[in-house]
From TrEMBL:
PANTHER family listed in its UniProt record: NEUREXOPHILIN AND PC-ESTERASE DOMAIN FAMILY, MEMBER 5, NXPE FAMILY MEMBER
Domain of life: Eukaryota
Protein name: NXPE C-terminal domain-containing protein
Residue span, NXPE C-terminal domain: 357-577
InterPro entries in the record: Ig-like_fold, Ig_E-set, NXPE4_C, NXPH/NXPE
Family: Belongs to the NXPE family.
Single Gene Ontology BP annotation: nervous system development
Length: 579
C-alpha cells in the first residue's frame, strides 16, 4: 500500500488526471479482491454447496443456475446457522465427546438459508394464501414406481414473488378415499421457487398437497431464539428438609435469568457416571442437597410484536394444481430387505394404503392380533426411555395385549416410570422419562434417570431391547446442548453394543405436530437430523415416524392418533421379530 501511495503521488505530479484515474481504478480493484478474499475466509458466501449433493431429480426446464437445497439432505458450508447467530463459538474441550471436526460438520449439515435483507413488516413475509404450485406433466401416463415433480412459487402478502428461499414446507401425495399418502422432499432453489419429487406408490388416483409450516422469516425467529434464549422455558426445583420447603428456578444451563444478581447462585448437580449437569438457584435457607422434586415452571420467551405476528401465521394448505394423477399398476414397491440394524432411511421411507403403512426400508410386518404381538414379545426385556410420544407405544402394547399387566409403582402418571409384565410370555416392559429437562408435573427427582445412565447399567443380551427417543423437550435449547446430550448417550450405546453386540437398540425419530417458539416442526426437524447424523455409524435401528406423521391425514398433533401409533409399533415389532 505504501508503494501504491508513492506511485499515486508520482503520477499526480507527472501524468495529470488521466494517469490518476487509471491508478485509482487499479487500487479499487485490488481493494475489492482483498475484501472478497477475506469474506470467503469468513464464510460470507451463504449459499455455497459442495458439488456432490447436486442431483438430477429436478425438471430440466428449471433454471440450472440456482443451486438446490434439499431439506432432507442438508449440506452447506457457511458458519452461521441462522441470521445473527454463529454456532462456531462452541469450542469442544479436549475431553469432549464431540470433536471440533464433527461439530463443524454438523453445523454445516444443519445450515439453513436465511433472508438476505432485514424485513420490516409481516407483509414482506411468505404468505401461504398467496403461494402456488403446479404439477409437471400431470396428464402423462404414470405407473407405480415412477415419480411426479412439482414446482412451487412462494409469494409475500402483497402477492409479490419471493426472491430468496428458506421457507419450511411439507409436501405429500395422497388419496382420501384410499386412505393413502406418502411424504415428499422439498428442494429450495434460493430464488423463491421450490421443487418437490413425489413417488407413485399405489395404483389409482392421487393428488398433491403442500403446506407452509413456517415462512423463512419465521424460521429465523425460531432459530435466533433457540440459540440466544435458552431459558425461555424454565423449571422448578422443590427443596425439602424436615418441615422446611422452598422452591427455586432450575434449568439445564446457566443463564442471566438463572443467575439473577449472582448473590445466591447456584446449586450445581452433576451426574457422576455420565457427567450431565443441572442448575438451580440457591435456596435462601436450605442446602443444595435438599432438592427433592422437579416440575415444569413456565414460559417466558421475549418476543417482539413482529416476531409474534410471524409465528402466529396459520399453517395453511397451499392453493395450487388440483389435477388428479392417475397411476397404473406397475413395479412392486415393497422392500424385500430383512428388518435389521444399520439400514439407511430412504425418502420416502414408506406409504399408507388403507391406513396401513408399508415400509420401503425393510420387509415390515403387521401384528393385528394380541396373540401375534405377545408372540413377538415372548422372552423379551424391553426398556423404553423418552417422552410422551414413546409412552404412547407402551400404552398401546398394554392395551393390545390383555395378559400384559402394569404394576402399580405409585409413580407420576406423566413421567413414570411404568412397568408391565406378562407372565405367560415372560415379557417385561419398562417406560420411563428421559430425565431432565422435561416438562412435567411435580415428580420425585430420583425417578428422573438420564438415558445414558440407564444404558450404562444394562447388561444387554439377545433378549434385551433398548428403545429411546429424545427431542420434544430440547427444542428450546441451543443446538450445542442437544448435541452434547446425544454424544453422552452415543457413548453409552456404543459401550453397550461392544460388551453385548446381540442387544437390539432402536431409536424413535421425532414426529410432527409442534407449531410455536417453544416447540416447532422446524426446531424438531433440526434436532431429528442431528440425532440421525450422530448415530448413523452405529448398528442401531431408526424408526422414521417423521414421515409417518407428516403425510397422514389426521390433524396435526404432537401425540399421533391410535391408527398412526399402531403402524409405528408394527414397524418397531418388525425389527424385534424380523423372521
Amino acid at each position: 500500500m505504501m508503494f501504491l501511495l508513492k506511485r499515486w503521488c508520482y503520477i499526480i505530479k507527472n501524468s495529470g488526471w488521466k494517469g490518476l484515474l487509471l491508478l485509482t481504478v487499479v487500487i479499487l480493484v485490488l481493494i475489492i479482491i482483498d475484501f472478497l478474499s477475506e469474506c470467503q475466509d469468513n464464510h460470507c458466501l451463504v449459499n455455497v454447496f459442495p458439488q456432490h449433493i447436486r442431483g438430477n431429480i429436478f425438471p430440466e426446464h428449471l433454471d440450472g443456475n440456482h443451486t438446490p437445497f434439499t431439506t432432507d439432505t442438508l449440506s452447506q458450508s457457511p458458519d452461521i446457522i441462522c441470521s445473527g447467530t454463529s454456532l462456531r463459538t462452541f469450542a469442544p474441550a479436549n475431553n469432549s465427546l464431540i470433536s471440533k471436526a464433527e461439530w463443524e460438520s454438523l453445523v454445516t449439515d444443519l445450515q439453513w438459508p436465511f433472508p438476505p435483507v432485514d424485513f420490516l413488516s409481516p407483509q414482506e413475509a411468505t404468505n401461504s394464501t398467496k403461494c402456488s404450485f403446479s404439477v409437471v406433466n400431470s396428464s402423462l401416463s404414470h405407473t407405480v414406481g415412477g415419480f411426479v415433480d412439482v414446482i412451487l412459487t412462494a409469494r409475500d402478502s402483497k402477492n409479490r414473488p419471493k426472491t430468496y428461499g428458506g421457507d419450511f414446507f411439507q409436501a405429500k401425495l395422497y388419496n382420501t378415499e384410499l386412505k393413502a399418502s406418502t411424504y415428499g422432499a422439498v428442494t429450495d432453489h434460493f430464488n423463491g421457487t421450490y421443487t418437490v419429487r413425489l413417488a407413485l406408490l399405489w395404483p389409482g388416483p392421487a393428488k398433491v398437497s403442500i403446506r407452509l409450516v413456517h415462512s423463512s422469516e419465521a424460521v429465523q425467529v425460531l432459530c435466533r431464539h433457540r440459540e440466544q434464549e435458552p431459558d425461555k422455558v424454565y423449571f422448578l426445583g422443590h427443596f425439602e428438609e424436615g418441615v422446611k420447603q422452598e422452591t427455586a428456578i432450575c434449568n439445564a444451563q446457566r443463564s442471566s435469568r438463572l443467575l439473577g444478581d449472582g448473590a445466591q447462585c447456584c446449586c450445581e448437580y452433576k451426574e457422576l457416571v455420565t457427567g450431565e449437569e443441572w442448575f438451580c438457584q440457591q435456596p435462601s435457607s436450605l442446602p443444595c442437597h435438599a432438592l427433592t422434586y422437579h416440575s415444569m415452571g413456565g414460559y417466558q420467551a421475549a418476543l417482539s410484536q413482529l416476531e409474534k405476528t410471524l409465528l402466529q401465521s396459520k399453517d395453511i394448505v397451499l392453493q395450487g394444481d388440483e389435477s388428479v394423477i392417475y397411476v397404473k399398476p406397475g413395479n412392486e414397491t415393497r422392500s424385500q430387505t430383512k428388518c435389521r440394524p444399520g439400514l439407511h432411511t430412504s425418502v420416502p421411507s414408506g406409504f399408507y394404503l388403507q391406513d396401513h403403512w408399508t415400509s420401503l426400508v425393510c420387509d415390515s410386518k403387521t401384528f393385528p392380533s394380541a396373540q401375534l404381538v405377545s408372540g413377538c414379545l415372548k422372552n423379551k426385556q424391553i426398556l423404553m426411555m423418552g417422552d410422551s410420544t414413546l409412552r404412547q407405544w407402551f400404552e398401546y402394547l398394554e392395551k393390545t395385549v390383555p395378559t400384559l399387566k402394569r404394576l402399580n409403582l405409585y409413580t407420576s402418571s406423566q413421567s413414570g416410570p411404568f412397568e408391565a409384565v406378562d407372565l405367560q410370555s415372560n415379557t417385561r416392559i419398562i417406560w420411563r422419562a428421559h430425565g431432565i429437562p422435561i416438562r412435567t408435573s411435580k415428580t420425585p427427582k430420583a425417578d428422573l434417570h438420564y438415558i445414558a445412565r440407564e444404558v450404562e447399567d444394562l447388561a444387554g443380551g439377545p433378549h434385551s431391547v433398548v428403545v429411546f427417543t429424545i427431542w420434544a423437550h430440547f427444542t428450546t435449547y441451543p443446538l450445542a446442548s442437544y448435541a452434547h446430550r446425544l454424544a453422552i448417550i452415543r457413548r453409552a450405546v456404543s459401550s453397550l453394543l461392544q460388551r453385548s453386540p446381540s442387544t437390539l437398540v432402536i431409536i424413535k425419530s421425532a414426529n410432527t405436530g409442534y407449531k410455536d417458539v417453544y416447540g416447532s416442526d422446524w426446531l424438531s426437524w433440526q434436532l431429528d437430523l442431528t440425532l440421525r447424523t450422530m448415530f448413523r455409524d452405529l448398528p442401531v435401528v431408526l424408526i422414521d415416524v417423521w414421515q409417518m406423521t407428516s403425510c397422514h391425514y389426521s390433524p396435526d398433533n404432537i401425540h399421533p392418533p391410535p391408527v398412526v401409533i399402531q403402524n409405528e409399533v408394527d414397524l418397531f415389532l418388525s425389527f424385534v421379530c424380523p423372521e
